[in-house]
Amino acid sequence: MSLHTHNKERNDILKALLGLSLTNTHPEIITDTATHSGLNGIAYHAWTNSEFDTGTVIQDASGNTIVGAVVPAGSIVYINFTAIKLASGTGVCYQSK
C-alpha cells in the first residue's frame, strides 16, 4: 500500500468518525458569564481555558462539584449538562437532539 493510499483511507475514516461525533448536535455557544440553562448538553468543548461557576448543573451527578474546575483550551468534557455558567472562558456546549 502506498503512503498516498494509506493517508486517503485514514482521512476517509476520520471524516466518517467526525460525521458521527459532535457535528450534528445543537451547539450552545458560550462567550459570557451568564447562566445558560435549559440545556440538554452532552459535552462542553473549551475554546479557551474555561472555569465552571456556581449555576452549572449536571444531570444525575454524584461526588464532588464541578464548580471551580478549569477545562484547558481545546479539551472536551463529556457530561450531561442542564445548565452552564462560566466564571471565565469561552466554548460550546453540544446538545443531544
Can I get a quick summary?
The protein has 97 residues and is α+β, with helices and mostly antiparallel strands.
Commentary on this structure:
The strands form 3 sheets. A 4-stranded antiparallel beta sheet has the order 1-10-3-7, with no helix packed on it. The protein has a 3-stranded antiparallel beta sheet with strand order 2-8-5, with no helix packed on it. The protein has one helix at 3-20; strands at residues 28-30, 36-37, 41-46, 50-52, 57-58, 70-71, 76-77, 81-84, 86-88, 91-95. The chain contains 1 helix and 10 strands. Helix content is 19%, strand content 33%. It has 97 residues and is an alpha+beta fold. The model has no long low-confidence stretch (mean pLDDT 86). 18% of the residues are buried. The chain has one domain (25-95).
Distance between the termini: 41 Å
Q: What structural class should be given to the helix and strand makeup?
A: alpha+beta
The gross shape turns out to be: elongated
Helicity level = 10-25%
Domain count: the total is 1
Tell me the Rg in angstroms.
Answer: 16 Å
How many helices? The count is: 1
Q: SSE string, helix = H, strand = E?
A: HEEEEEEEEEE
Main beta sheet strand tally, sense and closure? 4 strands, antiparallel
Instruction: Enumerate the spans where pLDDT stays under 50 for 5 or more consecutive residues.
Output: none
Strand content: 25-35%
Q: Count every beta strand, where a strand is a DSSP E run of 2 or more residues.
A: 10
Sheet with the most strands: spatial strand order: 1-10-3-7
Arithmetic mean of pLDDT: 86
